[in-house]
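Retro notes, structure queue

What went well: the backlog is down to a handful. What didn't: a couple of records were mislabeled last round, so from now on we paste the full input next to the output in the thread. Example, using Hydroxyethylthiazole kinase from Nosocomiicoccus ampullae:
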Amino acid sequence: MLEFKQGFPLQDSPLVDCLTNNVTIETMANSLLYVGAKPIMAAHTDEQDDVIKVVDAVLLNLGRILQGENDNLQSASKLAKKYGKPFIVDLVGYGIGEFRNNVGEEIIDNHPSIIKGNMSEIRAFCKLKSHGRGVDVGDEDTTNTSLDELIDALKKQVETYKNTVFMVTGPVDVIVSKNQAVKLYNGVENNGNFTGTGDVVGALAGALIGDGMDPLNACINAVSYFNICGEIAEDKSHGLNDFRFHLLNELSLLKDTDWTKEVKGEYV
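Corresponding output:
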């Protein structure tokens, strides 16, 4: 039986600074508001010191690295470490090429609270063969054999990143910390069929660590909460745009229910 601390509803209204791609920035900001958190999207290095001093958590998303934005991401990670702020790096597109990989690794050198990515991205980070297609997971990376191989590799990674939790999204979601490895089984296929779903999960995790929750429980809550919203949305919707509406709407509704009874998962 999977036992975890319930994170939603939040205890406070944590302020989360999101340095993220401009494709999904509005969706992420609204998702934080829907669950009772407060977003700020302050990226420029000239104001980062002032902003990161006062926020509760920082989310760094590699989704679209514009000219010079790598400096903003790297600076923010250093300041989060300096001020003791919990932070997440979402390795979107890791494995595409040397530049993006280097940006991600320089951020990770500051030991984030959570490293997030899909199965292909995290396989590439672990130096395993990856079949990612752009920012999407490759089917070959989702097999049971590939998943077991990835879990074993992550258990070695946490020997280096002892205070970091790895959150891996896919048909089965995986959370690995120095003390626990968890598989989570909620969700529907449509959860991955519109832009920004992974970004929203990262934002939810940012809200939770900003609310004072430990990274392992934050990851379990973020993934499960989002996926259960998708399960409810699928029953209410017809077509992808309708599904997207209902999923995001459920972010604001599910927290007022006894949603943790619907979580499906196990320790491995």
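Agreed that this is the format going forward. Reviewer comment attached to the example: The domain at 15-267 is CATH 3.40.1190.20 (UDP-N-acetylmuramoyl-L-alanine:D-glutamate ligase).
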